[in-house]
Amino acid sequence: MKRSFLLTAVFLYIAVVQGISGQSADTLRAIDELFAQYHNGMPGVAVAIERDGKVIYNKAFGIANLEHMVPNTTETVFEAGSVSKQFTAAAMLLLIQEGKLSVNDDVRKYVPELPDYGTPITIRHIFSHTSGLKDWGSLYGITGWPRTTRVYTQDLSFDIIFRQKSLNFIPGSQYSYSNSNYVLQALIVERITGKTLEQFTIERLFEPLGMKDTRWRSDQREIVKRRAVAYSGNQMRFLQNMPNENVHGPGGLLTTNADLLRWNRLLETPEIFTGEIARLRVEPGMLTSGRSAGYAAGLMIGEWNGFDEISHSGATGGYRAWLAWYPDKKLSVAILSNYASFDPAGAGRNIASIFLGRPVPGARMTVAVPGDGPFVPTAAMSEYAGSYYSEDVDVTYKLEVRNGELWVYRKAGDTFRLNPTGQDAFRSVSNGTYEFDRDRRGRITGFRVSVSRASNVPFRKL
Question: At 441, which helix (H) or strand (E)?
Fold first, then answer.
């Protein structure tokens, strides 16, 4: 009798789960298993899934604050990293919809401080990361102060962008992800509306959509209720890894999964945007070669296992995020995490694979290329020694030869070695590539450093 009652209860539970969510218990269990490793002794993750307009999964794992052992919940606020870009772009799209802006406008119409590079950078270029603008955070990394190592303000991000005398490439010719594109959009919104990006988006986006837990991190000192602390590290030692900066627009959105799912419905319903603007939102930029940039207005346009995927990942400090929409299945996946080691895109696509199937991996071949050993420069190392200054990033490097090796002294406690890779060419393991310039007499006059997202930043020899 008891066994019969228990079986009836189990079947009733499964029937209730299937009836409420429309999903089998096996499907929900498979999703649970993807996040089972995030236990109550470590930072974790919050996951929410919506299908056919109904939330079918909404859970949180791990700890939001390890000092006070506060657990992550479905109402915990996280930072969304670059998932934020689509919200900044949406503010711009509203201005386009109202006729106050055009995708073909030259950015310098609104930001005349931006240098004239001889060819226009348009709004469409900064939407799709085809502007050629160097990434403001990468530029500050060259100074020895990468992001999270000091407090950066919005004005400081503008300052270093306006200092740049060159671009990574001719606008429209290539795709290169650069946060500078979305810092400038925040400035354009402010100049057109007379309101901050935060004020404008609260009034025109967040409040109308009922996104009550969404705001911008415009002041990193401000108290945010229910916010998770971000961490790096492992089971042996976790360390706080907060994005201690006020720059926002390319990132800096504080939100919950419930609000992100609400936002994602705009990809299906015309609640705020007209048909033409809704199309523009997901239309990827085109390169001058005729190829697609694969990036629209703050959204990556691609596919997963043959299904269309409109998505974006995010990473700021120790926060990680993923938001994706699969229109063929009317499937939304929202993930927020306070753990730097978490892979948001991988986890998001693992969830998608439960509903869409998993792609069959193609065969891979690795071809070994024989090398000739390390390059031995013909020039004397002493030729490269000296002090060099960059006006573009306002920093001085001192290069010295030590035991036959070339070393860079950037600031107190910050030194690194340059390894020769070619004639007048060097590479640092973590600080980019260096190409030295000579005058007609063959004397070293300076060098150009290239790092990820910022190429050929000039230094002149003092």
Answer: none
CATH number of the CATH domain containing 454:
2.40.128.50
Q: What is the pLDDT of residues 290-306, one digit of tens each?
A: 999 999 999 999 999 99
Q: Quick one: tokens of 356?
A: 């869409």
Domain around 398 = 381-461
Contact predicate 152/442, CB 8 Å: no
Instruction: Please provide residue 197's backbone torsions phi and psi, each rounded to the nearest 5 degrees.
Output: -55, -40
Check whether residue 334 and residue 404 sit in a common domain: no
DSSP letter at 266 equals G
pLDDT digits 0-9 by tens, 36-67 = 999 889 999 999 999 999 999 999 999 999 99
Burial (CB < 10 A; 0-12, 13-18, 19+), residue 192, is: middle
- Distance separating alpha carbons of residues 143 and 390, to the nearest angstrom: 9
Helices and strands of the chain, counted as H and E runs:
12, 21
pTM greater than the 0.85 cutoff: yes
- From 356, 373, 403, the end of a domain falls on 356
Domain with residue 230: its CATH number is 3.40.710.10
> What's the Rg (C-alpha) of the chain?
25
Q: How far is Cα 378 from Cα 266, in angstroms, rounded to an integer?
A: 61
Assess if residue 448 is contained within a domain.
yes
Question: Which residues touch 93 (CB under 8 Å, ≥6 apart)?
Answer: 273, 277, 280, 281, 297
Among candidates 87, 427, 458, 204, which has minimal Cα distance to 416?
Answer: 427
Q: Residue for token digits 């998505």?
A: 311
Sheet holding 78-79, edge to edge: 78-79, 253-255, 215-216
CB 132 within 8 A of CB 455: no
Does residue 333 contact residue 257 with C-beta atoms inside 8 Å? no
Structurally, how many domains does the chain consist of?
A: 2
